[in-house]
Here is the input.
Amino acid sequence: MIENKSNRILIYLFFGFAFFIKAHAQNNTEVKELEEVIVTDQSEKRAKKEASLNVETVNSSFIQRNLGGSLMQSLQRIPGVKTISIGSGGSKPLIRGLGFNQVIVVENGIKHEGQQWGADHGLEIDQYAVNRVEIIKGPSSFMYGSDAIGGAVNIKPVPFPKKNTLGGNIDFTAKSNNEQIGSSLNLFGRNENWFFDTRITSSDYGDYRVPADVVHVYNYAVPLYKNRLRNTAGRELDWHVSAGFVGEKFKSSFYFSNIYSKSGFFANAHGLEPRNVDLELHDKSSRDILMPYQEVTHTKISNTTSFEIANHKFQTQLGFQKNFRQEWSHYVNHGYMPPIYPADMYAPQDLERQYDKEVFSVSVKDEFSIGKHQITVGLNAEKQQNQINGWSFLIPAFNQFNSGLFAYDKIQLNELWMLHGAVRLDYGKIEMKQYTDWFESEVSHNGQTVQEYLKRSEDLAKTFNSFTWSAGVNYNPGKVSFKANAGTSFRMPIAKELASNGVNYHYFRFEKGNPNLDAERSYQFDLGIDWQENKWSVQLSPFFNYFPNFIYLNPTSQHDIYYGAGNQVFEYQQSEVVRYGGELQAKYQFLQNLSGEILAEYLYSEQISGSKKGYTLPFSPPASVLFGINYTPEIKHLKDTYFSLDYRFTAQQNQIVPPEKTTASSQVFNLGLGTKLQTAKQDFIFSLQIQNLFNTRYLNHTSFYRLIELPEMGRNIILSVKVPFLIHP
Here is the structure.
């Protein structure tokens, strides 16, 4: 009853505020009749029309307007883009249902390398430092190599400051659901040629709340104190520095960044004994971070240099990354693990797992024109090594090397027709190291029981070679534009898929790798239709995708007896897979300041061979449609004012792979408003969101916590203020 009253109050407040603003605008502005003027970013529009793949581009204003707990959560409004969310502060991308190592993230031209194979591993990106993001839907291997088999998230560099300027901006963010407080300070400057750009970001949040008093974790009831998921608090501290030289034909930029985060795991759904959680200890504070928790530090150093010689534009990139991730959890013995943790162990008693990855990368690219041909050739190479530590084992330490050579040709036949063609050669090698248990287990040999240190992984080396190609055509007769692209992609299997052999305590399952896996390959056909006329704008992007050897984690009838509590064994296998679907974006301008839009997406996938023939793929997002209304009144002393209301309907997902569970349909409302206050000397940019307006209880099929029936975050009011400033014009 109280909940219904609060919902009505929120609606009355919103519409009352809207009517007040409208009346204020009518009473305080001079009425003039002008011809309609529509301003668009022509360069971005032209680039999208000329691209062979389906590409969506958003800027920092879009991110601020749709601000979520992480960058990918802020991009979920884009059709075809979803996330695997890890609580309120972390997530990883899903593009058309593919994620993990099937989608790459590129930041400032360097492929972002973390521990992206785990569903509990978030993306170490500071969304306040993001200026422009390009989402590429579909295979992008000819540009980026392995791991781009499902698409790419390309985070573009921040533009160079204008000459002889010194300025910056300050961002403040507050969120009601988990009492998050965040701020980010940016300072930049430039003389004629030399520039610098710095940013520091801090965020602190408490346990987030869900619209439930009790949740059931694998058939046992867990009471929630004040609706909070205990131990999901966290904090983040990031810094960025870029500096360099900008000339007419020579540019060189150095980038330095460090992303640090510490966040807890829902205490009742992690570890060896989640039932033995000290509820009184955890419920004393909603902002403390107790075990189990993770700490991640991601350091990145890179240089991008470009220069022009005659008709050639050369670009070189050098990069170094270090991803250091630790999972802390109380030691609990299972199987033949000793009841008392040895004092002379190489790892601290509470260090469950540690991954320490270092990555070195280099790339060279040359762009030039010959007649109607715009040609790009390039090569890149990457070397990474990943060391492990901790008392629990899942994947072995490994070294990996990847290299590729590509050529891309864009042919402008005439004003209407454009052709695209690309080829790429790749070579990859991965070497995994032997790992043996630090404790003895009982093993039977010929009827006799002996004690042995079991070997969990063998020394293993695998090499992979690949040839991929892409061909496309664009036809732009005017109000309607068409594009079609066909191509192939590939992906090297990763260490987890080849050699994992341990309990994944986040999912209460035993995961076992397959050293006989081949490189994953994909064949895809994409279409794009864009029609714009007067008040209408419509985009349709259907696709078809075929995998002859898709890699997936297959549940078996076996159960582990050595390292857990009888967890079900999952093994990596390959099968033929067919996928098809598409996205629809339609917008109609009812009035000069009132518009509506429809954003829809659909995906179907099916395994057509293997032990799970006839099933879909894990984490397959259901169909959804979003209806949005946007009102942009003109108000004196204010600029870019908007009111928006989104209604998203997500269909039920019955196509699952056991032990996944079916997910019911859901209906969620999000409300937003914002404006820019212009004073004599200073601008203030405000945005306010109310996510999950009616505090609806619903499940997200792609969420990390879906398997334990955990509903999504409840109502969340987000206030964001951006204050740009200029010290020296």
Observations:
- DSSP finds seven helices and 37 strands in the chain.
- The longest strand covers residues 536-559.
- Residues 348 and 390 are 7 Å apart (CA to CA).
- The radius of gyration is 26 Å.
